[in-house]
Specification:
Layout lengths: L6 H12 L10 H9 L5 H11 L3 H4 L4 H6 L4 H18 L11 H12 L6 E7 L5 E9 L9 H10 L4 E7 L9 H16 L3 E8 L4 E3 L10
Parallel strand pairs: 3-4
Antiparallel strand pairs: 1-2, 1-3, 4-5
Helix pairs in contact: 2-3
């Protein structure tokens, strides 16, 4: 006897067929994080881990075996997860920063590649020594509904800690507009004023999106590099 689908089964099949399957690249940061970890650990622990890392995916790569086990992964799953991370690292290769930063281009492109696609605003600073060598790259601030930019105090706290002579500042615009807002302009001016108090210099402030970047210095709003 032939076995066919009922009307209800056909309707359900059509709905499933029509349902759009989303690619991970279309997920927001939090959703991507949840999808990656909920296979191994309870959802409430996933949210706790995301909050602890402040949505900074680079910190995921720094998690140790014991930390992953603390959040609920078995040793076998933790090793599998770390192995996948190592595989991705080796496939992409380590991009070395130049010994000496001599202009905005490399800095802007590096920030654009790493943060241009982010759904939240990230403020990133490169701290440089007197020879313009990179001492540290640091995410100083991640935007929220309550705040949209770090204050100079937060940026120069790490500059003093690193004994930096110069700083390069950048942040992304999730809106997709690369042009500076009035707040961006005010913050840049405040950074330049604060730098003088510490005998430091802000070499540039760059705004990035997925497809473009804007340099305050290149557009004549800061001094020569």
């Amino acid at each position: 006897m032939a076995c066919g689908l009922t009307r209800e089964e056909k309707t359900m099949t059509e709905k499933i067929t029509r349902r759009k399957v989303r690619h991970p690249r279309d997920f927001g940061d939090r959703e991507l994080f949840r999808k990656a970890f909920t296979h191994w650990i309870p959802s409430e622990k996933v949210d706790a881990l995301y909050s602890e890392l402040q949505g900074d995916f680079k910190k995921v790569c720094e998690l140790s075996l014991s930390e992953l086990k603390h959040y609920g992964l078995t040793q076998r799953d933790a090793i599998a997860f770390l192995s996948m991370l190592e595989l991705f690292k080796r496939s992409e290769g380590e991009e070395e920063k130049p010994t000496c930063v001599t202009g905005t281009g490399y800095f802007a492109q590096s920030i654009q590649k790493a943060y241009g696609h982010k759904k939240q605003e990230h403020l990133v600073v490169w701290y440089l020594d007197v020879h313009c060598n990179v001492i540290e790259e640091r995410v100083v601030f991640i935007g929220s509904v309550h705040r949209s930019m770090a204050c100079p105090r937060e940026i120069f706290h790490y500059a003093v800690k690193n004994l930096a002579r110069y700083v390069l500042v950048a942040h992304n615009h999730p809106s997709g507009s690369v042009y500076p807002s009035s707040n961006d302009i005010n913050v840049t001016e405040a950074l330049e004023d604060a730098a003088k108090l510490f005998e430091m210099e802000v070499l540039d402030h760059v705004i990035v999106t997925k497809d473009n970047y804007y340099s305050f210095r290149d557009n004549g709003r800061m001094g020569c590099f």
